[in-house]
Amino acid sequence: MPLPFYAVVLSAILFGLGVMGFVFKRNIITIFMSIELMLNAVNLSFVAFSQMRHLLQGQVFVFFVIVVAAAEAAVGMGIILQVARNRQSLNIERIDLLKL
Amino acid sequence: MTVEHILFFILAAVAVGGAINLILLSHPIHSALALIVVMVALAAIYLLLGAELLAMVQIIVYAGAIMVLFVFIIMLLNAGLEERTSLSRAATWVGLPCGAILTGILAWRMTISGPGPFAPGAEAADASGALSHMLMTSYVFPFELTSILILVAILGAVVLAKRDF
Amino acid sequence: MSLLDNAWIIPALPLAGAAVNGLLGKRFTKPTVNAVALGSTTLAFLYALAVVNEFSHLPASQIPFTHSYFTWISAGSLSIDFAFAIDQLTVLMLMVVTGVGWLIHIYATGYMAHEEGYYRFFAYLNLFMFFMLVLILGATYPVMFVGWEGVGLCSYLLIGFYFLKKSASDAGKKAFIVNRVGDFGFLLGLFLIFKTFGTLDIHKVVEQAAHLPVETAGAGTLTLIGLLLFVGAAGKSAQVPLYVWLPDAMEGPTPVSALIHAATMVTAGVYMVARSSTIYVHAPMAMRVVAVVGCLTAFLAATIGLVQTDIKRVLAYSTVSQLGYMFLACGVGAFSAGVFHLMTHAFFKALLFLAAGSVIHAMGGEQDMRHMGGLRKPIAGTFWCMFTATLAIAGIPGFSGFFSKDEILWESLSSPYGSRALWLAGVITAILTAFYMFRLIFLTFFGEPRYDEHHVHVHESPKNMLVPLMVLAALSLGGGWMAAPKLFGGTDHFEEFLHPVFAHADEVREHLPASVPESMEHTAMAVTVLGAALGIFVAWFLYLKKPKAADEMEAALSGAHRTLLHKYYVDELYDAVIVHPIQWISTNVFWKVVDTGAIDGAVNGIGYTARDLGYGARTVQSGNGRSYASWLVVGAAAVTVIFLWLGH
Fold first, then answer.
1. Which residues on B lie below 8 Å from C630 (Cβ)?
2. What ipTM is given for this predicted complex?
3. What pTM value is reported for the model?
4. Which residue of C has its CA nearest to A18?
5. What CATH number does the domain containing A57 carry?
6. Structural domain total, chain A
């Protein structure tokens, strides 16, 4: 089996782990980091497929994903900062002002 | 079983180990460090897959800038140990198996989608150069757009993080 | 364009009058309302006269004269024209309706002078004229039905004219609803006619029916049609069992009672049966039913009229009874005799009602005969007119009523469809008629005054009320001579005139043997006259000679008296058997179960379901970030699985 196949499987595993972290962790920042993990997993699969099909478009896409992830991380951090200041806590379960 | 394969499996093990640590460790800073480990491992895997430029970009931007930002924030906010509130049994018993199944399905589907048009021996010798060329010609519009996006993100981040308006 | 082509003007004039008075009359002064209402009626009468004149010059081949104005309904094989047809029968009815209607309008200007809603009354009255004229002129059954329903509507409006009085509005409703029951039968008859003949044009139907065999074996299509149409006629013309509305209709103003419930509307049923004479002669069983019901009604109503104390009620039951006579005539095949009685009845019954109105007006609103008496001197004009009409209705020789009633009784005996039993019942009814009518006269006009002469100022009616009375009295007197039977050496002009209309009916009758020989006609006539005299004598005896005798008889036969007074408890019976159960079902089943439960329940249920679904869906928006994350993942997983499976 050529390498890209195993890379794709690895990407799936990393994505699954990212989902786990997204759902089960309580710290906002950790949740955010799980999202970044998911993005990385997807990048890996793009690169693997790009290698499989000998098309460079996959890598171009990864490039843009990284850029957007950066922008998103910056803005996300700003939001987390504000939320943490307002609620005095980084626990996602404390941020429930919209509760029923 | 070539050298590349062995190298890949080692790096894969490192990445998965980092990811598991991300989830299991309780202090956010530990999770951040684990994530950096994952990213570096992935960069190495990119090198193995022939995406040199991307590997560098990954290290510089992702691991070097984004994760540093994360670490800054953790330290700024004095994020402490994560509280241990009781996890619902249902979530554990349903969620974990579901996650595993999801992963399995994804992996299976992605791999059975065949080798596809494998153009043997058509590997670009100069992948980085070709990539850059493509970026500046076919994809120049999204490229410029992302610059604006970053500008907007900077502005947004500055505004959002102000202490008072 | 001849006058006949423009016959539509005849009904259009009262319609215009009704529209003007109805829409603008509130602001008019009384003279203006009069001018509009009377003017339109007078013009209609004059135009009708002109049309009749032109009609008389038409050659026989052009009769019936039809003119179709426009195609009203065109659906598949059904094509109904809005057309008017004029033949001898129409001409006769035209004269009666416009003439008597005109006289009653004049009378009403005097009678209603002090009433509220003056303009409304005349608007309704004109509207009634319009519908009645449409009914008579209609060449197709549906056009006749339009008029039929319209007069029912106007009857409701006019009976309930004093709508603030509960008994009046109840009476209006009762009239309309009972009529509706009859109309249901009429409609079924129309459907059957269309199914059998494929057309609803009266003359075409009659032509086709003439070629069908006579149904002697009982129930056939034509018999069914005849019976169904008769149900409608029974409703409109107050025969058993649908007569209950007519006595209650006396709640309306007296001119209404005169016009609608004596002269015109209630005769619509007779008119309709006469028009369909061809159908009836081909269905002897239906004719027998008509005759029997007519005879029964005549007898029953006469018995009830014997003991009533309200002057208008007596006249109401008298009307029902006389209508029974008309149907008896039609039922034995003497259609022209029935129509003749219709005409004479219009004269003397309208006169009776108007004169009763005059009496009531003179007595300041009193309607109970027990509180009248000795009015002969104070209101002599009214007295003589009413007396003339009473002589006519009692069947005194020389007056119009005698000729028509005698003709009917003779036909009920001698016609192939007649029988001795029918004749006997008719004669007894005639005796009763004479009795109760003279009872009315004696109680009202003779004897000692039984009212307080200080409180009631008896005064004669004004000219605009008296003159129509006199005209009608003249007609009651002389109107009969046009049909003087051959016995007296005169030619029966009337029957000759109407012969073309009933030609086929007469033809069928010729082939059947007469029940009794012609020579018995003199004997029958003598019996009739003697019977009338007997009735008058008994009335004179009981009410003038020995007034106490009436009270003693009443006490002795108190059970029978009470039954008659309460009209055989028919109204109570209907109430218990029909009205109350329907009300119960409406309240308990239709309202509580169907409307509140099912319909409201369904509609509200949809609302409740939507609300509950909303409540359920709302729990997703818990405000808990982690649950949102979980839902995200679940959704993403579901989408992935679906796409993977779809792509399989």
1. 91, 95
2. 0.91
3. 0.72
4. C633
5. 1.10.287.3510
6. 1
